[in-house]
Amino acid sequence: MAISLAKGQKVDLTKSNPGLTNIIVGLGWDTNKYDGGQDFDLDSSVFLLNADGKCSSEADFVFYNNTKGANGAVEHTGDNRTGEGDGDDEQVKVNLTSVPESIQKIAFTITIHDAETRSQNFGQVSNSYVRILSETNGEELIRYDLGEDFSIETAVVVGELYRHGAEWKFSAIGSGYQGGLGSLVSDYGLNV
């Protein structure tokens, strides 16, 4: 049974699941009833961070237009432009044993495409979650439902995988950002 996390909680991933190497990080969301005349397009992005919490290069920014990072250990499986239907809207595969030592954290984020132009924000998004599954047997190991804490934010850092000695842990972050993807990219040390 999956461990349900609350904002700010941290949990062992590999220590409590010995032999776990390949995981799927699933991200999901729904949009509330909205009459702004524009479609919603939410995107998941992954930032591969060094010990200083920064990306070393643009190659460490994994998203629908750069689907592989960490020498192939991290793979974004593709863009979902509507968010319709049940289950994960977007997924990221991670081979934990192949992630280079230089990468200490893997941050998972969700942003709203063209949020400012379309006057959209996370106050219009509900049922956001992140979950971690074993790729081998599909078992859900960790789940974090973000709740409805956002209003004017256009980007959310949902959680981080991070090294703790020889193990990997997961931290439920749930921090909202204004400024969309641009502010995240800048905060993580890139000028894309």
Describe the structure.
InterPro entries: Stress/Tellurium_Resist, TerD. Belongs to the CAPAB/TerDEXZ family. It is a single chain. The N and C termini lie far apart (40 Å). This protein is 6% helix and 43% strand. The strands form 2 sheets. The chain has a 7-stranded mixed β-sheet with strand order 1-11-10-3-8-7-6, with no helix packed on it. Strands 2-13-12-9-4-5 form a 6-stranded antiparallel β-sheet, with helices on one face. By secondary structure, it is mainly beta. It is built from 2 helices and 13 strands, in the order E-E-E-E-E-E-E-E-E-H-E-E-E-E-H.
Name the features.
43% strand; 6% helix; mainly beta; TerD; 7-stranded mixed sheet; 6-stranded antiparallel sheet; 192 residues; TerD family protein
User: Helical segment tally?
Assistant: 2
Biggest sheet strand order reads: 1-11-10-3-8-7-6
- Which whole number gives the mean pLDDT? 91
Show unreliable segments. none
Give a short account of the largest sheet.
Answer: 7 strands, mixed
What are the secondary-structure elements, in order, as H or E? Answer: EEEEEEEEEHEEEEH
Euclidean distance between termini CA atoms = 40 Å
Query: What overall geometry do the principal axes of the alpha carbons give?
Result: globular
**Alpha-beta content class:** mainly beta
- C-alpha Rg (nearest Å): 16 Å
What proportion of the residues form beta strands (DSSP E)?
35-45%
Summarize the structure.
With 192 residues, the chain is mainly β. 6% of the residues lie in helices and 43% in strands.
